[in-house]
């Protein structure tokens, strides 16, 4: 028996442990070894990496991808894409989605994992279609969550629909680390019985279940598991690559990984981790095990946000009430999976409901947009009385929200003008206008210094 391993150190581990602040120079020197280790793929781009490169690291994310590709010649490069949201936080028009996906592939991406936070597949179909046309391997992801309507059967139906869309593999994406080992076993088994595609399992160690969950997924016949090299594993990150490898090997499941190369990779990242701990970038709290998420069935990150919000309002003593209100708000909204942005929406509203002493007295503009259907269709039934209270006579969008958006590429191109030098620049600007423009201005400024300097030297 064998199983494939995707290494997440450059993307999810980096994002989950150190807020995606790892600069290229911290891993450029180990890219050749990462290519030699025997990974099925290297998750190295997408998610929050794009925004973080431009916003905090003064790095061109496209250049980062090309540099990775120049070193990693054999192993597949993988990215995470939020469907119609691409790598941003709102829905983009189809022309931007198609161009962005195509450029990602042209710059070196082989595998694109695509998901929608509500599991509304209308929000991923354009990205899936373009990725297939561009020749990428398309992995459809289903966001795992627990609720009265999220049954084993509902996830199997989603898997079937991902297969029908043309996806070439299906990922069970447990972003909160709340999938238990037995559920992983049952879900992988059920998907294998009902669809022909390879099954990938993605989880986090937040609640401490991660390694057990992956082991049971492997026992059930999962084709690929996501792991992070040990010194960037655990806590809010993935289970350790080496530990999973040794455990599976003993059970007769071959990962194809080279132990000597894994050691070399881990040795490389040890000082990176040490520096992150020293600087406070890596907070020991995220390395711990947080089982409250299992009790409340809400992700660890959301729990800490609730605590932060209540602390800021000097009302931490109201936390028990907020924790009771949270599942009620979620029910009223039709049980969205608690992942960005719905986790924030539900949390903020639950706090508002408790502190105002009256439910839905204050409503955020995000909840209004959600009730209007701007994020897509809720998994379950939305409370109609609440919807009417918020929207009045305003119509609800029944179709795909992106159908209401005008093409934006040409307008973005005209707006940014000469500061953009290629289509990739225009796309960076279309996704993150303020941040990208500032990045381009800095780039120009740095170049003018370089020129002056070299002239003086001459
Ligand atoms: Co993740």
> What percent of residues are in strands?
5-15%
Q: List the ions, cofactors and other small molecules found in this model.
A: cobalt (II) ion
Give me the number of helical elements.
Answer: 20
- CATH architecture name of the largest domain: Alpha-Beta Barrel
Low-confidence stretches: none
C-alpha Rg (nearest Å): 22 Å
- Cα-to-Cα separation, first versus last residue: 64 Å
Q: What is the general shape?
A: globular
CATH class of the largest domain: Alpha Beta
Number of domains: 3
CATH level 3 topology of the largest domain: TIM Barrel
- Which sheet architecture does the biggest sheet show? 8 strands, parallel, barrel
Oligomer: single chain
Main β-sheet, spatial strand arrangement: 1-2-3-4-5-6-7-8
Order of helices and strands: EHHEHHEHEHEHEHEHEHHHHHHHHHHH
Q: How many β strands by DSSP?
A: 8
**Class of secondary structure makeup:** alpha/beta
Structural account:
The chain is α/β, with parallel strands linked by helices. Helices cover 50% and strands 9% of the residues. It has 3 domains: 4-279, TIM Barrel, CATH 3.20.20.70; 285-402, Conserved carboxylase domain (Cyclin A, domain 1, Orthogonal Bundle); 408-457, no CATH class. The protein has helices at residues 9-18, 31-36, 49-55, 61-71, 94-106, 125-133, 152-165, 181-194, 210-219, 241-250, 259-279, 292-296, 300-312, 319-332, 342-356, 365-372, 384-391, 409-416, 423-431, 433-457; strands spanning 4-7, 41-46, 76-81, 111-114, 137-143, 169-173, 199-202, 224-227. An 8-stranded parallel β-barrel has the order 1-2-3-4-5-6-7-8, surrounded by 6 helices. Helix 5 runs parallel beside helix 6 (125-133), helix 5 packs across helix 19 (423-431) and helix 8 packs parallel to helix 9. It is globular and about 60 Å long. The site of cobalt (II) ion has 4 residues, from loops.
């Amino acid at each position: 028996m064998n199983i494939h391993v995707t290494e997440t150190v450059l993307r999810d581990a980096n994002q989950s442990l150190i807020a995606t602040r790892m600069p290229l120079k911290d891993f450029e020197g180990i890219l050749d070894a990462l290519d030699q280790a025997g990974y099925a793929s290297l998750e190295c781009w997408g998610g929050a990496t794009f925004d973080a490169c431009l916003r905090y690291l003064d790095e061109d994310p496209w250049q980062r991808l090309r540099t990775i590709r120049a070193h990693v010649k054999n192993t597949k490069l993988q990215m995470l894409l939020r469907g119609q949201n691409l790598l941003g936080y709102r829905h983009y028009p189809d022309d931007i989605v198609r161009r962005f996906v195509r450029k990602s592939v042209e710059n070196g991406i082989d595998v694109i994992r695509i998901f929608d936070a509500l599991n509304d597949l209308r929000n991923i179909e354009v990205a899936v279609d373009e990725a297939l046309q561009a020749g990428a391997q398309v992995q459809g992801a289903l966001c795992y969550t627990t609720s009265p309507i999220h049954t084993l059967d509902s996830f199997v139906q989603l898997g079937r629909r991902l297969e029908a869309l043309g996806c070439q593999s299906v990922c069970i994406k447990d972003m909160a680390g709340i999938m238990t080992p037995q559920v992983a076993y049952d879900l992988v088994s059920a998907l294998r019985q009902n669809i022909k595609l390879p099954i990938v399992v993605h989880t986090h160690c937040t609640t401490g279940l991660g390694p057990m969950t992956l082991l049971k997924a492997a026992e059930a016949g999962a084709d690929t598991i996501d792991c992070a090299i040990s010194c960037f594993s655990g806590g809010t990150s993935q289970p350790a690559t080496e530990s999973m490898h040794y455990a599976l090997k003993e059970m007769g499941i071959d990962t194809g990984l080279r132990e000597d190369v894994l050691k070399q990779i881990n040795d490389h990242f040890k000082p990176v981790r040490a520096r992150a701990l020293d600087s406070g970038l890596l907070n020991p709290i995220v390395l711990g095990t947080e089982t409250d998420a299992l009790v409340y069935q809400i992700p660890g990150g959301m729990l800490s946000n609730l605590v932060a919000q209540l602390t800021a309002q000097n009302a931490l003593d109201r936390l028990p009430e907020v924790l009771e209100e949270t599942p009620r708000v979620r029910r009223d909204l039709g049980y969205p999976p608690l992942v960005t942005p719905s986790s924030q929406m539900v949390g903020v509203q639950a706090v508002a409901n408790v502190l105002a002493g009256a439910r839905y007295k204050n409503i955020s503009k995000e909840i209004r947009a959600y009730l209007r259907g701007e994020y897509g269709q809720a998994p379950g039934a939305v409370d109609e009385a609440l919807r009417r209270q918020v929207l009045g006579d305003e119509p609800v969008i029944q179709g795909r929200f992106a159908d209401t958006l005008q093409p934006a590429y040409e307008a973005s191109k005209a707006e940014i003008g000469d500061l953009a030098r290629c289509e990739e620049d225009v796309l960076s600007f279309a996704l993150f206008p303020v941040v990208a423009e500032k990045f381009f201005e800095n780039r120009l400024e740095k170049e003018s210094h370089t020129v002056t300097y070299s002239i003086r030297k001459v």
